[in-house]
Design brief:
The protein is mostly helical. The protein has 21 helices and no strands. The chain has 4 domains: 43 residues; 80 residues, Flagellar motor switch protein FliG, alpha-alpha superhelical domain (Annexin V, domain 1), CATH 1.10.220.30; 36 residues; 83 residues, Orthogonal Bundle (Annexin V, domain 1). GO terms for molecular function: cytoskeletal motor activity.
């Protein structure tokens, strides 16, 4: 590795976005952020908060790539959805963040249900804690699966089971009922009524939410679902994507995923993986990189199960994010591999 490479390490896409926003200044950055959803704002915000000693070469590289990309497109579009308040408060401090948060949120077209997507999971749980379980299930089904999983973590097991079972059987919600729920929530959060989304829930949604529960809660919940409805538990398990399912992802998808996962996280995650997943990872790396990874695994020594599970969850979170963005296909459905 040359000295210049050591000074300017390879930037991830999120790093590049963070550098670009930091370069724009607060006012212009706020205008960009208001068109992004909570998940994207959180990821970029965390990267912004962690930025230290950004080199001139890195800024020039990001700006150059940005100009090239924009020049090839007719417009800019960013996906949507989770946590702006936490990100901006962490990055700017509470006082500075409040004004920026107001400008971003007030500029959005947010319904009562959408307002919940911008809240901390514990706060969402508190909002719906004493509502009827069917209302709780509608809210949980409406949230993105990762946020929904965190919200459920703040409920007792019995309530968590009831909500997941209801989400599994939920298919559509009458527009009038959704509008009424929006109106109730808007009295607390303000916003604009927009009750166009009526298809919610289902077994796949329940499986997606289960993916984001911690391993102990997930196992306990699955056992309880199996006791209530064995067929349903089997359907949910079939639709859940766990770490060992990575061996079914096509080679191109694995290569794309490896570019986004840090080596430290990967080493810990693979400590608890089966041989099939390890070999899948090794074969999609250069020979030298695979040898280094094998050496790191051998040198790592014993690792706590909780650390392995945490690392695997981090890899899966990245994989699901990339799948949502259409960058990879999970479950081995990416087409035939070329030999």
């Amino acid at each position: 590795m040359s000295s210049s490479q050591a000074v300017t390490p390879k930037l991830t896409k999120v790093d590049k976005a963070a550098i670009l926003l930091l370069s724009l200044g607060e006012t212009d950055a706020a205008q960009v952020l208001r068109h992004m959803g909570p998940k994207e704002v959180q990821r970029v915000g965390v990267a912004m908060a962690q930025m230290r000693n950004v080199h001139r070469e890195q800024v020039e590289q990001v700006m150059s790539e940005f100009v090239t990309v924009v020049g090839d497109q007719t417009g800019l579009g960013v996906g949507s959805d989770n946590y702006i308040r936490k990100m901006l408060t962490s990055a700017l401090g509470e006082d500075k963040a409040n004004g920026l948060i107001d400008r971003i949120l007030l500029g959005g077209n947010t319904s009562g249900l959408d307002s919940l997507k911008w809240m901390e999971p514990r706060a969402v749980a508190d909002v719906i804690r004493y509502e009827h379980p069917q209302i709780q299930s509608i809210v949980v089904a409406y949230l993105d699966p990762d946020q929904a999983g965190e919200v459920l973590a703040h409920f007792e097991h019995k309530a968590r089971l009831d909500i997941i079972l209801r989400v599994s059987s939920l298919n559509t919600v009458q527009p009038a009922a959704l509008k009424e729920l929006n109106t109730i929530l808007e009295k607390q959060f303000s916003g604009n009524s927009n009750a166009t989304r009526t298809t919610l829930g289902g077994v796949k949604r329940a499986a997606d939410i289960m993916n984001f529960l911690d391993s102990s809660s997930e196992g306990q919940l699955m056992d309880s679902i199996r006791e209530v409805d064995e067929e349903l538990s089997g359907q949910i398990e079939d639709l859940m994507f766990v770490f060992n399912n990575l061996k079914d992802v096509d080679d191109r998808g694995i290569q794309a995923l490896l570019r986004e996962v840090s080596s430290d996280v990967l080493v810990v995650a693979l400590k608890g993986a089966d041989e099939g997943v390890r070999e899948k990872i090794f074969k999609n790396m250069s020979k030298r990189a695979a040898e280094l990874l094998r050496d790191d695994l051998e040198a790592k020594g014993p690792v706590r199960v909780s650390d392995v599970e945490s690392a695997q969850k981090e890899v899966l979170t990245i994989a699901r994010r990339m799948a949502e963005a259409g960058e990879i296909v999970l479950g081995g459905k990416g087409g035939e591999e070329m030999i």
